[in-house]
Amino acid sequence: MGGPMRSIWKGAITFGLVNVPVKAYSATEDHDIALHQVHATDGGRIRYQRTCELDGEAVEYADIAKAFDDGERTVVLTAEDIASLPAEKSREIDVVEFVPSDQVDPIMFEKAYFLEPDSPSTKAYSLLRRTLQETQRTAIVQFALRQKTRLGALRVRGDIIMLQALLWDDEVRQAHFPSLDEAVTLSDREMSMSQSLVKSFESDFQPEKFTDEYQAQLRTLIDAKLEKGDSLDTAETFGERETGSGEVLDLMEALRLSVEKNRKKATA
User: Fold this and answer.
1) Among 47, 161, 171, 220, which residue's CB has the most CB atoms within a 10 Å radius?
2) Is 23 inside a domain boundary?
């Protein structure tokens, strides 16, 4: 697992006259294997430089500012300019409303943060946590983090209040597929077979049962190449995978075979 967590933000949850000082920690971390870009013929590392179009010189990150271009004029915004915005200076997670939890569409979820009490007394923190639990509501909040004003949701996980960043409404795309406008007739037999398939897969969700198969295979391949050299191919490491016969099955036959296969697995 990762090392000790470090807080990335300190502030306070505010709702009404209640003030709950907290520290925020990233709730997730990336375990993907880091891969570099290299020149395939000699293994030389590929590196990128930020260069100025006017003088061709490499530019240090500290000397880079942001700019808005409307097609005719360019406005340069320095780090000091952005830091001067009132929202950027805010250290509050401001509760604006409490909504039924099932009204928050998961498509809006972004990064999650653990919130730790940052006060000698945890009474206000515990009061908010228990209130969220007993009312079965989610607190919708606004806050500023890393040069963005953000929408968020407060929810409880175990005994910890979590801050879940949310997308703004206009960041969620609308979709319409004409193919779904066509009327489809589903028979009782098809629905019954489909529900049987669902029943054969029923389980309680235990995320620890699942692993990132791609990353595990990538680590196996890397270890094998380190041990035996670059001449090793994937088939030698993992064996040949079954590709199937390519036979096209109708819906009912596919459902029937799926149910049978899963029943055999359950009784094995």
Assistant:
1) 161
2) yes
CA distance 208 to 205: 9
Domain match, 228 and 155 both: no
How far from 183 is each of 108, 162, 178, 179, 186, CA to CA, in Å?
Answer: 30, 43, 11, 9, 10
Question: 154 and 28 in one domain?
Answer: yes
Same domain membership, residue 237 and residue 137 = no
Q: For helices 251-267 and 188-200, give the axis angle rounded to 10 degrees.
A: 30
Domain count, the chain: 2
pLDDT of residue 99: 94
Interval 169-206: pLDDT, tens: 999 999 999 998 999 898 999 899 899 988 888 888 88
Residue 157, domain extent: 9-32+85-171
CB under 8 Å to 151, separation ≥6 — which residues?
140, 141, 142, 165, 166, 167, 168
Query: What pLDDT digit, counting tens, does each position of 90-119 carry?
Result: 688 999 999 999 999 999 999 999 999 999
Q: Note whether 161 and 194 are same-domain residues.
A: no
pTM above 0.85, yes or no: no
Using DSSP's 3-state secondary structure scheme, residue 185 falls into coil
Can you tell me the distance from the alpha carbon of 136 to that of 134, in angstroms, rounded to the nearest whole number?
Answer: 5
